[in-house]
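Dear colleague,

As promised, here are the two records you asked about, laid out in our usual form so they can be pasted straight into your sheet.

NAME FIELD: protein one
SEQUENCE, THEN STRUCTURE:
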Amino acid sequence: MTGGRARTAVAVCVVLVGVTCLLGVGAAVVSFRASDALLVPRPVATPYGRLDPATAYGLPFATVHVVEPLGRAPAWYVRGRTATWAVIVHGMGAPRAEALPMLPLLHSRGFAALVITYRNDPGAPSSPDRLSHLGADEWRDLDAAVGYAVAHGAARVVLVGYSIGGEIVCNFLRHSASTGRVDAVVLDSPVLEWRGPLATAAARTSLPSPLVGAAERVVSWRTGVDLDDQDQVRYATEFGVPMLLLQGAADPVTPVADARAFAARNRNVQLIEFPGAGHADEWQSDPLQYNRAVGSFLVGLGPS
């Protein structure tokens, strides 16, 4: 090879290395931004956000404060007639008003209701990194709320989780010393694993599908969360409490396939699907079916 050709070859190699480095940096930046879509809590519009919690459905609320691991967090409390409390966990970025359609059903059974907030919610303490930990740490806030309920007269507890609230509830059931207090669980559009929702979040940022795996690694690196350990479908057989799982068949965020796989592995899970319903949209799509399903499930829980 002549000197001129050698210099040309070296120049081409330098250019290729430079382009590869730039592509790598660009991929890292895009993956980081995609991880933000999953980890940075943002307000989510719901049909319930403008309802007045003090008057909705004629149920009076009081605001109480639960001492969670990171500090005091506000919660709505509805008085009940029995020693059974429902502790309700909303979805990421959703307001506590997301729980309002459930409250009349719980109240009709005489249950007290505690609609909680958790780290990084408005009015609640922020986590040190201000990022969602996808339920891996937030379950400790639910644990504190169950402790609050028990300290204020709850003998038994029903857990209700929406979206990421489902992941939080499942982690509570796997890790809390208070699991024995729980009689039943209602999950509405629950996140049961994170790879499906991450792919959806990535698509909203126009992340190319080959980079989704990189975004998963960025999520784990930023939070220290093991996504495999947050796959509740893998642990489905470990949940011994009765569960009602309400799932939209057209949910673009939490795949209906996850709900079906979870229910197929655990005979304690009753799955009710809502054809055409999107994420956390089951009640809106068919209030009658929703109320009937939850009401029938709660009938199996005798009043205290």
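NAME FIELD: protein two
SEQUENCE, THEN STRUCTURE:
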Amino acid sequence: MGQKATYKVGNWKEYNRSLINRGNLTVWISDEAIATWNLTSPTGRKGRTKTYSDLAIETALTLRCLLGLPLRQTQGFLEGLIKLLDLKIDAPNYSTLSRRADSLAIDLGVLASRSNVDVAIDATGLKVYGEGEWKMRTHGKNKRRTWRKLHIAIDHKTNEIVAVTLTKSNVHDSMETSSLLDQIDNIASVTADKGYDNKNAYEPIAAKGAKAIIPPRSGAALKLQNPTWGDVERNRLVREHQLLGKDAWKSGSGYRRRVLVETSIGRYKRTIGASMHSRNLGRQKAEVRLGAKILNQMTHLGMPKSYKV
């Protein structure tokens, strides 16, 4: 066996500074959020005027997601921070944060879109409640476990999370392909694992005019009678796979870049957590979008540039 390749970070000074800045509160609390924290002018709609702006609620929930705090502790953290900084604003009540999260529209904070985006998609589970993995393996379960499925798409070049959805655990990974791709413009290619080798993935990829990079299942056959757009794309992959072989196809097609989406999933679970804080599905969807936005902001602060030594 050959010696394992080793890598060195070439921009360590800049990357080290970015890691430090990830803990800087000024990164997560903007001047704009403070300036527009309270809403005072009437909206012209029926009902009571909202006390806090959407940006204020998003800032509070971002801190909660980043620090892993329950809602009540988030309120207490904000009250203490506002007092220390002597700001003329109030901290939202924990019940207000919970209620407003349901209808909050959260932008992922992706940088200006570019043409011909190469994306990779994958899914993972996030626990809502129930026993952990160690207890399950050691003692078995004694009550029903509940979890959600997080689906994400990343840009190969920038490592940004460009699309995210959250579903119940019984939704197949490939069924969210269309929902993910609808959030992205100018797609050149879509890379996914063998679990996406079906029409739920091929049809939306072909509809976007993108190239699919998905390994066909073992024994995959060509569909020659009345092929759809998705069938044509899959037939191409089946022929390439048969002609080149599995390993050569993976190297030549760019499939090995799919590891980047697995890395992003690992970053999400290490930074945001492998469990959901919210119990309501609508609030859980807001929670994962906030988590993705946090990771994107960390990416913008600086990422390592490594080279082989």
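A couple of things worth noting about protein two: The chain is about 45% helix and 15% strand. The chain has a mean pLDDT of 90.

Best,
R.
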